Every structure is written in structure tokens, then in C-alpha cells.
Automatic annotation (TrEMBL):
Protein name in UniProt: DUF155 domain-containing protein
Annotated ranges, domain DUF155: 49-218
Record flagged with keyword Transmembrane helix: yes
Record keyword Transmembrane helix present: yes
Membrane-crossing residue ranges in chain numbering: 241-260
InterPro entries membership: DUF155, RMD1/Sad1-interacting
Length: 262
């Protein structure tokens, strides 16, 4: 009977200080650095893989060792999350298999090599990081739903110009961070050097629906972009209305002065 072992994925921060973290891991553990990943072989058993974009994948690592390692590297985290994003999977080793496959969140590997684990860890880490983006986009939409409701009910957004500008800046900053991080969702450079492992990556990415989720995320980002444009148009309208009011007042004053002089 095949023994199931655990895979635990943690997204704990927006990113790690890659150079400092990988240097530290190399000084403390048997570590192999490949591109933007550090593969750490633990003396207590199991393998931990750390990605520069704030995700860790633990293969057959006990709870205490996971907790110890995550606490140990916390000082290298940038914009650490209060609550990490966690996903669980399992794997078994079946030497009768020719290629790795996945069914019902269980990976069936034909060998126990770290490169195969890394090939699978890439889409696992992308999926977990993508979950963070999905939640961030939903939060932005929900937080600004009142702006759309204001426009529907009143035909205008009844907010001070300064508050509108601040909200517009906040939304722009948040979606910019997402767009700037989009590069990690591409096929990693690792597979340029190990093309024989790319089918493993692709099959896992397909199982996790990464491509369809990116397409949905892009549509939601388009909705937010429309919201930004709406706020911009409202600001322009408010500014034009203010200028028109000032002009009318000035004309009225000029007429009054002319009547008094007459």
C-alpha cells in the first residue's frame, strides 16, 4: 500500500528579501538555489522550497518543523501578512508510474527527486499567490461598491474632491501592485533549462485552473479600471461644475457692479 505524505503551501508575505534569505538558508541548511527558488533538505526529513515571491512549499515536513522554519525566515519577509494563505495537498511515490500525475489533490510521483518536486511546486506556489490576488481584487470591488450605488441613485458621487482623489490613488496603487507581480504567473525560466519537466508543470497548472483563473482576474481588473475611469470622469465633472459656478458668480458680480455704476 502506498503511503501518503503531505504537501503544505504557505503564502506568508508579498515577497522575501531573496538575496538575504537564500544566503541565510545556505548558511544553515543543505540548500540548492535554482533561479528564484531555494530547495532546503532538512535533517529531520522532508524538503522545503522557498520562492522569492513570498511562498513556501513543504514536502513531507512535520508541523513543528514548518512552524520553526516560517518563524525563522519571518525577518526576511516584506509586507508580511497577518494571516497566511494555506493550501493542502498530498503525494505518494509509485515507481510503477512513468510520469507524475494528480488526482483528487493527490500527486502520484514516479520518483522522489527534488527537481520533480520543484516542477510541481511552481504551479502550487503560483496558485496560492493567485488566490491572494483574487481576494485583493474582490476586496477592492466590495470596498468601492458604494461609489457605483451613489452614481445609480443620485447620478453623481457625493464625496469631497479630496476623498475621491485619495480613493482613486488607493485603487491605482493596489492594481499597479497586481500588474507588476504578473510576471511570476508566466512559465518559470527554470523550464528553459529543464524542458523535460515542463509537462509536469503544465499538467499541474491545468489541474489548478491557473489559466482560467488569470482570465477571470483580468476581467475583474477591467471592472476596477472602469471604476477608476468613472471616478476620474466624476472628478472632471465636479471640477467643471465648480468652474461654471465661479464664472456665473463673477458674471453676476460684474452685472451688479455695472448696475450700481449706471
Amino acid at each position: 500500500m502506498l503511503t501518503q505524505k503531505s504537501i503544505k503551501v504557505f503564502c506568508t508575505a508579498r515577497r522575501y528579501d531573496k538575496s538575504a534569505l537564500f544566503s541565510y538558508l545556505g548558511s544553515r541548511y543543505k540548500t540548492t538555489i535554482i533561479k528564484d527558488a531555494a530547495i532546503v533538505e532538512l535533517s529531520t526529513g522532508g524538503v522545503a522550497i522557498f520562492f522569492s515571491y513570498g511562498v513556501s512549499v513543504f514536502w513531507d515536513v512535520g508541523y513543528e518543523s514548518q512552524k520553526y522554519l516560517l518563524d525563522e525566515i519571518s525577518e526576511y519577509s516584506k509586507e508580511r501578512f497577518e494571516k497566511p494563505i494555506v493550501e493542502d495537498f498530498n503525494y505518494v511515490i509509485d515507481n510503477s508510474q512513468q510520469n507524475p500525475k494528480i488526482t483528487r489533490d493527490i500527486f502520484i510521483l514516479h520518483d522522489d527527486s527534488n527537481l520533480v518536486k520543484l516542477a510541481i511546486s511552481y504551479p502550487l506556489s503560483q496558485s496560492t499567490e493567485l488566490y491572494y490576488f483574487e481576494e485583493a481584487v474582490i476586496t477592492i470591488i466590495n470596498r468601492n461598491e458604494f461609489l457605483v450605488n451613489e452614481l445609480v441613485k443620485r447620478g453623481r458621487i457625493k464625496l469631497p474632491q479630496k476623498q475621491l482623489s485619495m480613493e482613486r490613488g488607493r485603487i491605482f496603487r493596489e492594481i499597479s501592485e497586481i500588474y507588476l507581480s504578473y510576471g511570476f504567473l508566466d512559465v518559470p525560466e527554470f523550464f528553459w533549462e529543464y524542458p523535460e519537466l515542463e509537462p509536469v508543470y503544465q499538467s499541474t497548472a491545468n489541474y489548478l485552473d491557473i489559466k482560467p483563473r488569470i482570465e477571470v482576474l483580468n476581467k475583474k481588473l477591467a471592472v476596477i479600471q472602469d471604476l477608476l475611469n468613472m471616478i476620474s470622469d466624476e472628478q472632471k465633472h465636479n471640477h467643471s461644475a465648480f468652474l461654471e459656478t465661479v464664472i456665473i458668480i463673477l458674471i453676476a458680480i460684474e452685472i451688479i457692479i455695472s448696475i450700481i455704476k449706471w
